[in-house]
Amino acid sequence: MAEPETPPVQPLAWGLVLIPAVAQFLLHVLTNGNYGIFRDEYYYLACADRLAWGYVELIRNTPILVQVLIFYFIIAAVLGIPRLWAGILSLAFYEGAFAAEIIRGAIVAVHRGQREAAQSLGFSTFDMYRDVILPQAVPLMLPPLGGVLVNAGGRTYDGTVRGRLHALRQRLAATS
Description:
Layout: H1 11-38, H2 48-60, H3 64-79, H4 83-109, H5 112-120, H6 125-175
């Protein structure tokens, strides 16, 4: 007896889940990767360490539902951001706090001798990170960042399904 064919993935599913998840992932890695560098004990910029610490602690210790509601009903309404982007931004901020800690951990995992060698060669801080530290830290951070991407896809799916259900409820209430 032949097994029934599984239906192909609908193009709507790609637009509802995959595109926002990838946009969210790129947004939080590109913007919040700096926080991982700022939290490094060897990188000193006046108050960047404290700002990064405050951001990570505030975002990681606040429930995601509260953050989504704040973005959706307050920040999006004040700034005039579309609903989709409010959801993407709220999830990007949430996942970005975890990505910042992953990046910081990978940077700290690079042996201290590598930093000392770069400093003894006269590298500036920027050159040290670009040429010595980050090339060794990126392979360490890729597997956990893959997990963050999977979480981003799952949370994006949850958000789009809930958003569609909310819109359906509003339409049903308006017609009755």
